[in-house]
Design goal:
- The structure is a single chain.
- The protein is of the alpha+beta class and 326 residues long.
- Helix 5 packs antiparallel against helix 12 and helix 11 crosses helix 12.
- It folds into three domains: 113 residues, 2-Layer Sandwich (TATA-Binding Protein); 123 residues, Hypothetical protein, domain 2 (Endonuclease III, domain 1); 54 residues, Endonuclease Iii, domain 2 (Orthogonal Bundle).
- It has 16 helices and seven strands.
- The protein starts with a strand and ends with a helix.
- It has a five-stranded antiparallel sheet with strand order 1-5-4-3-2. Strands 6-7 form a two-stranded antiparallel sheet.
- The structure holds a DNA duplex (13 and 12 nucleotides).
Length: 326
DNA sequence: ACCCAGGCGTCAG
DNA sequence: CTGACGCCTGGG
């Protein structure tokens, strides 16, 4: 059986503007960009352990037309549930009008609005996936990180066939634990049957480098010790401390996980660019240590900290400020 | 064409 | 605090 259901998302169902293209392609390290095909963004969404291929209009996101959503699945599609999931992923529950009032109240932040109109937080579809992909993003470029995620999905995720092609889910902790860390381990695992050069089904071969070890340790912790449902219920500070115990997770990565995986909008992930931008805008270029920048951001921007980080980064990229700071 | 320095966040020393 | 980690980018 194969089911396709279609619905619209109207302009008055969410508050403030939405630029879907900008949201998907602004390099947020929550999920790789969705595929673009015949005027739609497409991605496999796992919901209640069932696969759904979501197709969402990629054009006219800035005008008054509703967005088309088509969902293809081998199982019955609960439109309400999938719609909620889509709202979560694209930050459609965030009121950008209120955000913009806040940004307007700070002359340093005001200019970010016109560069980021309709930009929303692009959330991960699942907390475990978010943990692994955030670890992979550390000390890494967006392109390299996206490639690694896609390769992990292809090697260890489940394959699903849809009308427009094959898609792979993000592998479970169990699957990641079964994957060899590097080619030597894979070689030993097959008892020397394969040539060492042909051992490419390991984490390191996904371009993850030394992060492979962290990823397996993280998967082990999630399987044995860390209950992600419990983490979801904790307040920001408590969850932050727990996440820091995961190998490969420092303050920046923990904040990304809290922001993109658990929807904690008060998280303020500080990478080198945010550091440079904040030092430039708020400390007249003086060099302030990263941990202080983080505390400053959380104090100064409160519940909007995550959005401010997103807007400052994109603003710096588009306005040319980044080139100046480099 | 080539090489090699520089950049990225976390960890270990 | 500093250097190492792996890989890609970009300048020479």
């Amino acid at each position: 059986m194969r089911m396709i259901k279609q619905f619209q998302i109207y302009r008055d169902e969410y508050q403030g503007p939405l630029n879907l293209d900008l949201t998907i392609n602004s390099g947020q390290t929550s999920q790789p960009s969705w595929k673009e095909n015949e005027g739609y963004f497409q991605e496999l969404i796992m919901f209640d352990n069932q696969p759904y291929l979501v197709n969402i209009t990629s054009s006219s996101s800035e005008n008054e037309d509703p967005m088309d959503v088509k969902i293809e699945s081998p199982v019955n599609v609960d439109i309400g549930a999938l719609k909620n999931k889509i709202f979560d992923i694209f930050g459609l529950n965030d009121d950008l009008n209120i955000l913009y009032k806040f940004l307007e109240s700070d002359p340093k932040l005001f200019p970010t609005i016109k560069f980021c109109h309709g930009l929303r937080l692009f959330k991960a579809q699942d907390p475990f996936e978010c943990i692994i992909s955030s670890i992979s993003s550390a000390n890494n470029s967006i392109i390299r990180w996206s490639r690694s995620i896609r390769q992990m999905e292809k090697k260890w995720g489940d394959e699903y066939h849809f009308l427009s092609g094959k898609y792979y889910s993000f592998p479970s902790p169990q699957r990641i634990l079964m994957a060899p860390e590097h080619e030597i381990e894979e070689f030993e695992l097959c008892g020397g049957e394969k040539d060492l050069e042909k051992c490419i089904d390991n984490l390191k071969a996904c371009g993850l480098g030394y992060r492979g070890k962290y990823i397996k340790q993280a998967a082990q912790l999630v399987q044995d010790d860390i209950d992600l449902n419990e983490l979801e219920k904790m307040d920001y500070d408590e969850a932050f401390q727990i996440l820091l115990q995961i190998p490969g997770v420092g303050p920046k990565v923990a904040d990304c996980i809290l922001l993109y995986g658990f929807g904690k909008g008060e998280a303020f992930p500080v990478d080198v660019w945010i550091k440079r931008i904040i030092c430039h805008l708020y400390f007249s270029g003086k060099d302030i240590p990263v941990p202080k920048i983080r505390l400053f951001g959380m104090e100064e921007f409160g519940e909007y900290a995550g959005y401010v980080q997103l807007y400052l980064f994109h603003y710096a990229r588009k306005s040319g400020l980044m080139k100046t700071l480099k």
